[in-house]
Amino acid sequence: MQRILSAELARHVGEQVTIAGWIHRRRMLKSVAFLILRDRSGFAQVVTTSAELEALSEETVVRVTGTVTANEVAPGGVELTGPTIEVLSDEVEALPVELFRPSLTVTLPTLLDHAPLTLRHPARRPLFDLRAAVIRGFRSTLDGLGFTEVHSPKIVGIATESGSNVFELDYFGRKAYLAQSPQLYKQTLVGVFERVYEIGQAFRAEPSDTARHLAEYVSLDAELGFIENQRDVMAVLRDVVAGMIAEAKAVPSVAGAGFDLPEVPAEIPILHFSEALKIAGASPDEEDLAPAHERAVGEWGLREHGSDFVYVEGYPTLKRAFYTHPEPGREPYSRAFDLIFRGIEMVSGSQRLHRYADYVSTLTERGAQLGPYESFLEVFKLGMPPHGGFAIGLERFVAQLTGIANIREVTYFPRDLHRVTP
Ligand code: AMO
């Protein structure tokens, strides 16, 4: 018999049906026993006997055929009676974590060490449903704006973001690196498609053991040509973030989880870097915003504009990567920006240099060898329009949307300073 989902049972009262899933919980009473089966749609109650359930343990995978019977005290108002239970999996050993408890009160190391099991906990589902939804929103918004989805190599010949936090690997006897960002490739592909985006892994050999750094994260990148300046990029990013949040709000499990999902204002307030320092009470000589400064900027946005989002633009050029476009006539400032969401940097972007000579001079000034960059710089002799783009850190965004303090909790199998399994 064809399998139906537990959420579909109510439409089949009086019929014989087959469902399949995991034994979420067993409840054995004197005269009767209940098996709570979990599948991708939710839960179903199966009425059986203790003798039948005794030999089975939680998380065993079973297929159950029985009659759908109305019972208003059962979950969803129906249950399966007169069941035949068939075991589909191996026998399940003693579980390190009990999934049938409503909340998962385990330490972070336990949660992560037992990820194959703890990811199954129903309370975690909305987090990952939201994660998938914001990716859908990112993709559909950019598709609607005429962007092309691309994929760039993750094994690359040069470091793009900064030399220090790059993973080096032995590539057939030569040195290569894991891509810290699709940066140079997305720029190059603007020369092909004008507007591109990529959803892919980025690798950072982050020595910082913090709640917001991973060694491998998902970077949601976009890049577009024919811009006047960074403001055109910031306008696209605003629409992308709004599309991501709208998609998340439309998911029933996300709506039911009670997350405090923000409204994205039509115009996100913009602060120049120098104003942001003032608001944060920082010295005007600071060259970057520290986490405490970002928090102060976030509070300013909420206080002055009722906005959870604030753009800071004009970061000092030398504090940003070499491809960043300076603000002409306003040294030391650049056309780079960050999007601060509830006090944390979530997105970085900028207008890029698009002239060959500018790359040569900036790399030289920064003391870099031109050699490794040569193949990338070629494209700037082949006709490149003014362009810019941004990258959203998926895990930081999801953690901040859901109020989760540590981004490892919204990552399936996090990679960090200490962790390379599971
Ligand atoms: P940046 O290095 O600021 O910019 O990274 C962009 C965004 O990626 C996220 N992020 C991280 N998330 C988790 N763990 C990490 N170790 C980590 N590092 C970064 C953050 C950050 O805002 N090429 C530029 C983007 C561009 O200009 O288009 C870049 O990579 O959310």
UniProtKB/TrEMBL annotation:
The record marks P75 as: Important for tRNA non-discrimination. Aspartyl-tRNA synthetase with relaxed tRNA specificity since it is able to aspartylate not only its cognate tRNA(Asp) but also tRNA(Asn). Reaction proceeds in two steps: L-aspartate is first activated by ATP to form Asp-AMP and then transferred to the acceptor end of tRNA(Asp/Asn). It is found in: Cytoplasm. It catalyses: tRNA(Asx) + L-aspartate + ATP = L-aspartyl-tRNA(Asx) + AMP + diphosphate. Residues 130-422 form the Aminoacyl-transfer RNA synthetases class-II family profile domain. GO terms for molecular function: aspartate-tRNA(Asn) ligase activity. L-aspartate binds at E161, R204, S348, R352. Coiled coil: none annotated. Its EC number is 6.1.1.23. Belongs to the class-II aminoacyl-tRNA synthetase family. Type 2 subfamily. This is Aspartate--tRNA(Asp/Asn) ligase. ATP binds at R204, A205, E206, R212, H213, L214, E345, G393, L394, E395, R396. InterPro entries: Aa-tRNA-synt_II, aa-tRNA-synth_II, aa-tRNA-synth_II/BPL/LPL, Asp-tRNA_synthase_2, Asp/Asn-tRNA-synth_IIb, NA-bd_OB-fold, NA-bd_OB_tRNA. Residues 183-186 are annotated as: Aspartate. The keyword Ion transport does not apply. The lineage of its organism: Bacteria, Bacillati, Actinomycetota, Actinomycetes, Micromonosporales.
